[in-house]
Structures are given as structure tokens and as C-alpha cells.
Amino acid sequence: MKDPQNDNKKKIWTMVKILIVLLIFSSLIALFFTSSGESLTGYNTAIIPIKGEITSESGGGLFSADTASSPDIIQSIEKAKNDANIKAVIFEINSPGGSPVATDEIAQEIKSLREKNITTVAWVRESGASGAYWIATSTDHIIANRMSVVGSIGVIGSYLGLYGLMNRYNVTYERLVSGEYKDTGTPYRPLSSAEENLMQEKLDTLHKYFITAVAENRNMSYDAVKNLSNGEIYLGVEAKDNGLIDELGGKDEVINYLSKKLNTTITTKEFTKQKSFIESITSMMSKNSYYIGQGIASGLVKDQGLKLTT
Amino acid sequence: MLLSNKIFKPIIISTIMNDIKNNIKDYSSDNTVGFWKRTLSFLMDILIINLVIVSPFRGIFSGYINSGSLKQSLSLGAMTMPSNMYWAIFFIFLLALLYFTFFDYYLGQTPGQMLLKIKTISIKEKDGQIKLWTAALRNCYILPFFPFYIFWVVEPLYLAFYKERLLEKITFTKTVYESDKQSNKNIYKEYKLNKV
Question: Which residue is closest to A273 within chain B, CA to CA?
Fold first, then answer.
């Protein structure tokens, strides 16, 4: 006579044995994939673009072109830092610089990647000037094209003074302030010499910070950097000679450098801020608006300032 | 006497046989399990597979998913998925096939079926025991490559209309209620009669 209880026990025990065997097999296979040395996700290097003017506001506003927004870039750096697959980060730089605060924020965040032993490389495209150069110096290695524009180690606070135009049309500026320097920098009146000295002091302080950062990051003396810090832009080939960059080249040279440094095949993945649907639409609209405006403006204004073209 | 044996006996026997066939057919078809119960047992099995087989791979996949790569891969038609990922997914499905095969072979029922008191039997065997290759064949729809993934569409539709899967028809297996042992014997008899 069959014992149903015994049968049930046998059944459950067989079930458990089969589940254990399957669990062991799947664990062994998963272990094999993680220890095989090759990334299952297929990438080990992040590319973070830094393109456009560096600002501390999120990009994609209705009337602005694309900018290098520090909150967005920091978010991408954090994502790379927390991704276990990432062994290196390439910063693809094409920026004329921008806000000193945003620049410093990004530079500090790049340095924090060292804590996780993540190698960083700055790959300068057309332009890596001013704040963008400051950011590039925070990385372990800088590679630029021989014709890239780098350097411009200086600070600018210039603005258009409208008082001449206002005088012409009998427009007056009614000054009502409490605090002598409250409206320093207003375009509606000229700067007094005291104000000019004050603003110059601020610019010199920022300039000092800039030079100190470059000297520290590039392992150069303060004086050596100061000699190169009259705001001059340098072509890539000049920057290589005076020690402002490490290597001339492009993406191939970046990949070669990293593969030698990390002793592995480099597979890249771009890390950018994931745009929501609304952000994508407004970004598209802002680009269209910007280019329409740029098109109209270029017809009206012949002189667009210094631009190196071939 | 001899003439009646030759003429009448076959007629009588075939009439009785037809009668038995009809009765058994009506009775045995009531014992096959319907679509919803089988779907529920399958979902339970999927949960167990998720726990036992997929969870060791979770750490590997979570990095891929969290970085947005999965979204990117799906939007680009999965052609950007690295080859290692394909192998990992293949092994998961292979282990899932082994899950269903081993349970059908050793116990005649998966844990999901056990909970709902249904089981799988072979109608070719007297004791209903499924052979190992039969169990593997009836569950091969699990495999995620051509031509097996065609069954992902065919099997549910066939089950919905005919109360059995196409692969079950091919492998002479059925999913029945555990309790009704008499009906299960009748299913075997029916198969034998049909063969005769």
C-alpha cells in the first residue's frame, strides 16, 4: 500500500534537489561571466562631452544654444563613478570657457574620480580655452590636435557700456543706491577709477586661482604658468612645446594611451544627461530659435570677432 | 457457427469498441486542464525560475540596465547588445528548459503545477511516466532562438483553442488533474484503442 505522506515527502525532496542543482549551475555560469575579465556590458570607458559655453545652469533653455552645464556634467561624472564597469573617462572638450564657478565645480568633480582609480583623459577638439582648459588640466592626460586652440589662461569681465548711446538720445540714468559700489558694472554709466581698481582686484584674484590650479595640475611652477597666463591662446603644437598639454593627436591617440595605461581593450560609451521628452522638445526648439537668430544676426553684423578658420 | 463467428463477431466487437471509445473520450477530455489554470501554474514557475536561475545574474544585468544601455539597446533593436550578454541570456533560457524538463521527467509536475494539483502524463506509457527526451521536446518552446520562438505565439493560441499545446500533441503528453487517476488510465486506453 502506497503511503501518500511518504510520497509527498519524496516529491518535495526531489523538487528541492532539482532546484539546488539548477541554482548551483546558474551561480557557476554567472561567476564565469563576471570573472572572465571581459565586461559583460561591453564598455569600460565613459565619454563625457563638454561642449559650448560652461555655465552653472542646466542647458536647453528656450532661447539658448547648447551649453556645457555643470550640474549635467557632474551628474554624468557621478554616473560614471558609480558604474563598476568604468575604468576610464574621456572628456571630449570643445568649449571656449565660461563661468568660473561652474568650471571649478566640474574640475573638482573630475579630481574625485581618482579616488576610484578611474583614469581621466581630456581630448581637446577645436577649442579648450580658458575655463575649458582649467577643466582639461584636472585630468591625468591632455591630448589636443596640433591646431586646437588651448590656453587663454586669464579672466575676462568686459561688458558693453551703453552710456554713450544713452547720451546721444538724451536718456539719463537715475542712480539710487545705498552702498557706494552697489551698481558697479552697470552699463548705464562709466566706471569710476576706484570701481575699476576694485573690479580689477577681483579679476586678479580669479586669475591667481586659475594660475594656481594649472600649476598644481600640470606639475609646473607658479611662475612658469604665470609667464604663459597673459590670456594668450596657443595652438596645440605650441601648447605641447610649453608644457600645457601632454600629447598631440585625436581619438586614436586617446584610445592608444588608455589601452596602454589600463592594459586592456578600450570600449567606450557616451555618458550624457538623459533628456526627458519635454527637455528634448525644448532643446530642439531652442536650437532652431538660436540658429534662426544666428542666421539673421550674421546678415546684419559682418564682424563676428576673432575666429580662426581655414 | 463458423459463419456467425466470422461475420457477427467482428461486428459485435467493433460496436462494443466504438461504444467504449465514445464513452472514454467523453470522460477523459474532462480531465485535461484548462487555459487559465495552466497559465497560472506557468507564471508561478516563472517566479521560481526568476528566484533560482535569474537572480545570480542580477548583478551583471543591473549595471547594464542602470547605465541606460538597455534602453539604448532596445531603441536600436538590440543590435548594440554585447555578445557576452547574448550568451548569458542563452544560458538562462537553457537552465529554464532544464527546469521544466527535469521536473516533468522526475516528478511529472513542476512546482507551479504541484501547487495547483495538476500534472503532466505521457499517454503512450501505461504508468504515464514521461521519458527524458519527451520532456525536453515538449518544453523546447523555451529556447530563445529560431525556430523555437515561433512556439511563443503558436503554443498559447493552440492551448486556448484546443486545451492542449501543439508540442504536447506531438510528444503524446497531456496536462491533467492529479486527483483523477481513473481518467488518466482511460487516456492511456484511449490512445491504445486509437492506435489499433
Answer: B68
Does A40 contact B66 at a Cβ distance shorter than 8 Å? no
pLDDT digits (tens, 9 = 90+) for B162-178: 888 999 999 999 998 88
With CB atoms and an 8 Å threshold, state whether B63 touches A85. Answer: yes
B90 touches chain A (CB under 8 A): no
8 Å CB contact of B84 and A84: no
Which residues in chain A have their CB less than 8 angstroms from residue B64's CB? 40-41
CATH number at residue A118: 3.90.226.10
* Region at A124 (left for phi over 0; alpha for psi -120 to 50; beta for the rest): beta
In a domain, A27, yes or no: no
Q: Which chain B positions have a beta carbon within 8 Å of A34's beta carbon?
A: 59-60
Q: Please indicate, yes or no, if residue A239 is contained in any of the structural domains.
A: yes
* DSSP state for residue A36 in the 8-state scheme: T
Q: With contact defined as beta carbons under 8 Å apart, do A152 and A133 qualify?
A: yes
Burial class (CB in 10 A: 0-12, 13-18, 19+), A249: middle
Over residues A104-138, the pLDDT tens digits come to 999 999 999 999 999 999 999 999 999 999 999 99
Q: Which of A44, A46, A140, A142 is nearest to A93 (CA)?
A: A142
Query: Do B56 and A27 lie within an 8 Å CB cutoff?
Result: yes
pLDDT in tens, A1-57: 557 778 888 889 999 999 999 999 999 988 887 765 455 567 889 999 999 999 998
**Host domain of residue A219:** 41-295
At A58, the amino acid letter reads: S
- Asked if the Cβ–Cβ distance from A14 to B107 is below 8 Å, we say yes
A91-101 pLDDT per residue, tens: 999 999 999 99
With left for phi above 0 and alpha for psi between -120 and 50, is residue A173 left, alpha or beta?
A: beta
Q: Hey, which residues of A are catalytic here? A: 130, 182
- Domain presence at residue A67: yes
Cα angle at A144 between A138 and A148, to 5 degrees?
Answer: 115
- How do strand B173-177 and strand B118-122 relate by DSSP bridges? antiparallel
Q: Which residue has the cell 582648459?
A: A133
Q: Is residue A307 part of a domain?
A: no
Mean pLDDT of A275-279: 61
Q: Which residues of B touch A41 (CB under 8 A)?
A: 60, 63-64, 67, 69, 82, 85
What pLDDT score does A32 carry?
A: 83
Instruction: Please answer yes or no on whether A41 and B69 come within 8 Å at the CB atom.
Output: yes
Number of A–B residue contacts, CB under 8 Å? 90
B64 touches chain A (CB under 8 A): yes
Measure CA B32 to chain center. 12
The residue among A165, A164, A188, A185 whose CA lies nearest residue A175 is A188
| Domains contained in chain A, number | 1
CB-CB: which of B48, B56, B107 is closest to A26? B56
